[in-house]
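Predict both folds.
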Amino acid sequence: MNQDSIVLIAIGSFLLIGLITDVIAKKTAIPRVTILVCVGVVLGPQVLNVIPSIVEEQFDWLTSIALVMVGFLLGGKLTSDTFLRLGAPLFWISLAEALTTAVLVTLALTLAGLDWKLSLVLGCIGAATAAEVAFQSVIDVGANNRFSNLLLAIVALDDVWSLIIFSVGIALAAAGTGFESFIHAGKELVGGVALGVGLGVPAAYITGRLKPGEPVLVEALAVVFICSGLAQWLEVSFLLAAISMGAVIANIAKHHDQPFHAIENVEWPFLLLFFILAGALLELDSIGVIALATGVYTLARIAGKWSGAFAGASISGVDAKTKKWVGVALMPQAGAAIGMALVAGQFLPDYEQILLQIVIASTLIFELIGPILTSVALKKNS
């Protein structure tokens, strides 16, 4: 059997598994994301080891496409109307939870005995929230209210803040390498935004002409795939590029009635494959190797997300229920954190292994409990 056949059979099998998870999720109230990650762990090399290596090798491009779709949809939430409606809460909650998490994780790990450079980088990584998990949780719960809209907008803006924080943190931690780290950070940040704007402006005017009111599916897929490919080629943040592109189109394309709904019809199969492969690639052995550091990181991140979001919500004057639950909804951590860890390892080679071990181990924990907590928060505010 050739490699193409193996990949196609595996993808078909994963999609069927996705249908089964829908049934299980409805009967048990366990989020689909958590079930898919667990399925990936069981099928992966840690347990049954039945996923062919050629399939696992597809994870990088699949991640890019899945996250670009999510970023594109989240960017569509960052419209001028959204900022006018959610302005102060959106700004203060997203900024406060990201900064507070970075500071608390850094301090906690430093007090636990880790080198300050390693602690700083882990703190900055901890600020990121898994956009794809939060987005899918909103769909699974069927939430469409002020809280869910605020959550999605916060997650989109959170990716911007976390990337800025990470860029500054890695530059400070790797100061001994000169300006190389600053150049890399600047390219990731500025390049991602520039690419998103550069693609978003023409797309806003061109799309939606064949079918008045909304772009057809082919148009939507075209801009997503082009954005994903160019971001990888230029080595800039594809998530930030997608968010920027989505925001630009949503704000400029006034002739669109439903500019992003076309993508929503096809993004789930890509996310399904992403979550299964993400679970398969998680290394369970990492938890036992650096258990103390992982525990400190996990608890500090939970405290930072909740307290920071609570503080931001208090400053912006939102209702008591939102104050209590918005931080809980921001717990998911996934692929973006591992990606940041890989980048950080290039600048801090002495800490590369322990950095990856802590992030991978904590990601396993947050991928299992994060979707559950987000779903609970959404249901409490329905």
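Second protein follows, with its predicted structure tokens after the sequence.
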Amino acid sequence: MGQSTNTRTMKTILVTGSRGQIGSDLVVALRKRYGATQVIASDRQAMPYTGAKLFAYEILDVRDSQGLQDLIERYDIGTIYHLAGILSAKGEGNPQLCWDVNVNGLFNVLEAAKFYQLQVFWPSSIAVFGSDTPKFNTPQTTIKDPSTMYGITKLTGELFCNYYAHRFGVDVRSLRLPGIISYSTPPGGGTTDFAVEIFYQAIKDGSYTCFVRPETRLPMMYMSDAIKAILELMQAEPAAITVRSSYNIAAVSFSAAELVAEIQKHLPEFTCRYQPDFRQAIADSWPSVIDDSQARADWGWRHSYDLPAIVADMLEHLSPQVGRDTEVLAKK
């Protein structure tokens, strides 16, 4: 590695995986808060539209440690929001790639953080839990026995974060995120994506085939709450952060059938059939309700969106968008 740039006057932010579900919204929030020039977005592929030239964007594969170091030095990076990763369902399709990206990518970021004295945010997941984990009010410290490669990589990542924080003093912070619901980006290959796909299909077709059973209950969170949680965690005083592996965090838990019923309050003709696939087994291994009292006590976490608020906001934002997409397709 080159000369460390520890005496920086301005801390630029790097977001990896910026085109993903969380990254797309987080980049907007960070630029609004800190200024557009202070946030460098990055991902493995080039941006598909010319508007990307208005903001700093770099192509980066997080497995490329030298490329990462070059970006850190070129932009005088002080904080990395490391979001690049392979999600649960896609990870089962290619376990080797999932391990390579999720584990080796995080290792490269933490090694760089150690050398350049960077602050790091990294998202873990409820996928670290497994069949022997208590499913209701899952505690902060409990059995973690993941059954997917995605979950294994996230558990490994938590151990990495805890190690680098205590062994090398890296200011790394993490949240065990539940399923995230957002209208900004299409579903990206996660087991909880039924809770996003369903809105697109409800608006476009009036029906949806759900890949989990109706009684399947999982922890979920609206994107606005997820972004708020990430920003609040990163702004908290270091002394307030008592968990360096990853914090349990929660908002609402609901079943697939409860989500359907709430959507039907707005779209009475909407119907849903259930056809569980391999993702059902993944969902069955995860908790139903998470105890996030540690996050609430340590840095004051509070969620804002319950199920009715999520459904109303999703439909309000997606209805015009899906309608336009459908019209474009019909004209082709």
